Structure formats: structure tokens, C-alpha cells
Automatic annotation (TrEMBL):
Residues 37-106 form the Transcription regulator PadR N-terminal domain. This is Transcriptional regulator, PadR family. PANTHER family: PADR-FAMILY TRANSCRIPTIONAL REGULATOR, TRANSCRIPTIONAL REGULATOR RV3488. It comes from Methanothrix thermoacetophila (strain DSM 6194 / JCM 14653 / NBRC 101360 / PT) (Methanosaeta thermophila). InterPro entries: Metal_resp_DNA-bind_regulator (IPR052509), Tscrpt_reg_PadR_N (IPR005149), WH-like_DNA-bd_sf (IPR036388), WH_DNA-bd_sf (IPR036390).
């Protein structure tokens, strides 16, 4: 049974109000910023500002620069990301996953998927009773 099928079955039975959806997503996004940042940068390189906009577009959660940039700087220091100034704009850095970053991303996403599938397997049982 896949994460999507279990989660989809649970979500199909629950009608969340917009405020509740935003709260649930916020509670998920904020503690998992690093994984989401890696995942998005795994799709394409971008600057920090565009990353913040993309997280907002996908999850309707607005992260501050103070929440995102320290993570980016730390990942650069750890060799997970590479940063280069954008052509024609020496104020904008573009962040790209390194090979080490791609491996870290795969491992972190794998752990997250495992944890969510494990939790949903018990939650599904609780909802069906």
C-alpha cells in the first residue's frame, strides 16, 4: 500500500476548512524546511527568494528570509549546495545541489516517506474502526 493511497483514503473522508488546511500544512512545512528546500532545488537551481516563493506557491506557507537563508548557508558550508552569483546580477546567488546534496536529499526524503507511511498505517486502522 502506497503513501498516496493511504493518505488519499484518509483525506477523502475528511473535509478540512481552508484555515485548517493552512494550519496542517504550516505544521508540516516549518519543521521540514530542509527537506523541502532540497527537494525543490533538486528540481531546478534557484535563488533564495524564488525558493521562498515556490514554497508559498506549493504549500501556502510563507517562510521568512531568516528561516530559509541560514539553512541555505549551512548547506553550502556542508557541501550539500553550491552557490554562484547570477549572471548579470552580483547580488543574487543561485543555489544548486551538489552530488553530495543529491544523496542527502534522497536519503532524507526516503526517511520522511518511511515515517509517514508507518504513521499512516496506524492512523488508517484508527479511522476504519
Amino acid at each position: 500500500m502506497s503513501l498516496a493511497s493511504v493518505g488519499g483514503a484518509l483525506i477523502g473522508e475528511i473535509n478540512l476548512e481552508q484555515d485548517d488546511r493552512e494550519e496542517v500544512l504550516s505544521r508540516f512545512v516549518k519543521p521540514n524546511k530542509d527537506i523541502l528546500i532540497l527537494s525543490i532545488l533538486g528540481e531546478r537551481p534557484m535563488c533564495g527568494y524564488d525558493l521562498i516563493k515556490e514554497i508559498y506557491r506549493r504549500y501556502n506557507v510563507l517562510l521568512s528570509q531568516g528561516a530559509v537563508y541560514p539553512i541555505l548557508y549551512s548547506m553550502v558550508d556542508d557541501g550539500i549546495l553550491r552557490s554562484e552569483y547570477s549572471r548579470g546580477n552580483m547580488r543574487t546567488k543561485i543555489y544548486t545541489l551538489t552530488p553530495k546534496g543529491q544523496e542527502v536529499m534522497r536519503r532524507k526524503i526516503g526517511k520522511m516517506v518511511y515515517a509517514l507511511e508507518y504513521m499512516l498505517s496506524f492512523l488508517k486502522g484508527s479511522c476504519s474502526e
